[in-house]
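Support request, please re-run this one:
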Amino acid sequence: MADTGEDDGTRTGNRVDIDGDATGPVIAGNYNVVVDAQHGSTVTVLMDGRRPRPRRRDRIRLLPRRQGTPLGRDADLAAIAAALHAGESVQLWGPPGVGKSALLRYAARTLDAGGDGVVFLDAARREPEDLAQDIFEACHSTGGYAPSRGELPRLMEGVEATVYVDNADYTAEQLRTVMDAAPDALFVFAGREEVLQGTDGRAHRVEGVTRDAAAELLTRELGGPGDPDLVTALWEAAAGTPLLLLRAAAVARLDPAAGLPRPGAVRELLHPLFDRLDEPSLRALHLLGTFRDAELDPEHIGALSGTPDAAALCAGLAGLGLAEETELGYRVADGVVAALRERQGLRPYALERLCGYFADWAARPETPAAQVAGHARALEVLAELAEQSGRADLAVRVVRAASPALARSLRFGVWGRLLDQGLPAAQRAGDRQAEAYFTHERGVRAVLTGNRVLAAVLLAEAGILWRQLGDTQGADAAANAQQYVPQEPGAGAGSPDGPGEVNAPEGGGSDVGSSSTDPTPLQDPTAGTVPGTPAPEPALTPETGASMPTDPGPTAPDMPTVPSDPGVPVASDPVSASGAATSGGGMPVDPGPPLGSASLPPGAADLGGAVVTGSAPVAGVSAAVATALKVAAVIAALTIAVVAVQQSQDGSESRSATPVSGSTTMDAGFGDPTPEREPEPEPEPTGLAGVWWSSEGGGIEFVEAGAGRYTARARDVCGDTITAEFSGGGDTYSATAPAYDMSSGSCGEVLGQVRTTITIGEDGDTASVTREMASTVREGVTCYTCTPFTLTRAS
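Re-run finished. Output below.
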């Protein structure tokens, strides 16, 4: 893997050559990951001396593209320079179109860099963690290495660079995450809202330009001075906003006979500009509008819009105030998407063609992983459009093709976003192989990011799915990855419950994972063993999650085999907010001929244009809730411990409610019963009492508690042991339990209540299970796992 960025500031990206099955190794923290596009990635812990040794660049210089000098910004530049001279970070803030990006780019190229150099980055639709990796790679020759969040500040210690970040529309906490990644650097952010305050740095508001600067801008664009009175009126109507003034000049330039527009129309100039565009320009702009806020390389714009010189055409659109030039290519300017959506007569781009083009491009061996990561927002938009058009199969195709490259790009934030789209799409499309793959990769990603609960649950489910498909290679990879699930933070090293020793990186110093505050604690399961010998596979105890050796015992011959970790913490049934909000959607697309499996499933709800169905967590944005929620419902009825029916040595029968084989989520089908011998016959049970097999995998034992009540023990996603109690009468029993916000990877606020209802059939040996949100604390929380399934009484 090549270095990202050269010392002279060029941007080469992380070029990765992919062989026929798209496999390749990356190193994240203390883990070596072999990315596999077919059977799921494998994880191992690095042995001593194998960790890369990042080398700090002698010259840090990652500059933005050159541009013209912004007019009337002397005072703003002086304010930035004063803050940096005082050793303070600064945030430029103001509304869209006011000129923040132009000012930031000019400052990055002209102000005294000082220290070790300059880094310029675009944070649009980027997770703070991915941006931190960008900074690391700009300052080091990394050898394809992503340090953990705890190790990164140590590697960046002493790097006194000035980092300019455009489109940094983050919260104050997220800004601190970025700044903490480079503790000795100074930052200049640009965003829409003022969030940087107090000890974090200064906030500087960017306002419209002065009248003189506005007159100079119009003179430059028109090739001569305009009517002073009209210029003044336009400046006042536009509040000095450069983007609006640029559009006013563009209207006059494209139609000299009409001249400058009336001041009252200065904010309504998009449609007049559209009317003056030629067909190739309008088609290219429509393509950019289809991808909403995503940026596209001119190569793709030309190929899809049929434009021979797409770079020159897009530069012309930027000169009209319709497009915005980025480090990667171009995206539409503020307000253009909404105006294009109102325009009639535009022929939609064929969705099948767009998805096929980008899926093929992302899967090519010669496509750099960094380029795929740079287009991740475009791929995300495509997947959303496919889902909204009832073509979940196309969404699966795009995400499946891009996932290996996103993993190798070491941008785990955007990789996670795409995987969160791919999994429910695969379930809606009925693509079981893709479902297993996405579940597996989400589990591997959770290992790399230190999310122990999700890692354990997802890898256990992936193992079951692979085995159901007969893919032993995928099942083995999932089982192997489970032994590297991060341990509970704060556990004592060297104790049975602790992470054990960790390898020290070359060059001295302790490895990440030794601190309980490190969110990605790493362990070396080979510590204390003879080099070259296989390490024992640790498992998590049912009650504490501590690492301990275990013998899972033989599996039932007629049930799917499961990973050999009998104590993975119990998962919960996930629910989520809506997968997409269409109010800010892209341009219309032609979904192409429908497939048989692409129509909305029976009973699927339509919320904000997204199909609300499936049985896995979905990351997205609700039309009612502005932020994405990854929600997991701790539903007692759906986190019932898998039953292990065992025989004692003297032949007597006993039952144990100990969780086995990983997860015990009835919805996800984790875990399978593992009897040592066939149980002795017993009297036929009545009601719910007894052991039942789920159609989605796993077993449940209900114990009669009297008065129409039945209980079953479980461990929820928070790690607590709970008792699910179903009550009712006749053939129908139900239980209700809370749903917790899991966006942080651990239990958060309660978002509602989910009711599970079991209805026993006339034969007494089968039952149907339904789930629904009984109540929510806010609008927009939707259960994505409320799909029906069946239970069959064990004979």
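Residues 302 and 310 are 5 Å apart (CA to CA). The radius of gyration is 29 Å.
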